[in-house]
């Protein structure tokens, strides 16, 4: 889900493509360069440069991302989304994009 929100923000996927990906692909792996690009775009959108800044983002900033996420999956909660963002951030820093 977070990857798809990042792809929408980057302009590489439409909401319809994201819905299709989330509902049909259910991939068990993550393309780490896309992981990095997506989380970087989300952090840029929020004006955050670190996980600490992400944790203090305004509710309104997160709500703007939730509007996108809810277009893909109306059942996702803000807690699930922010928790997934944190996890993706940690993975993206563990595996540099030049691998």
Automatic annotation (TrEMBL):
One of its GO terms (biological process) is negative regulation of vulval development. InterPro entries: Lin-15A/B-like_dom, Lin-15B-like. Residues 1-95 form the Lin-15A/B-like domain. This is Lin-15A/B-like domain-containing protein. It comes from Caenorhabditis nigoni. The lineage of its organism: Eukaryota, Metazoa, Ecdysozoa, Nematoda, Chromadorea. The gene is Cnig_chr_V.g21170.
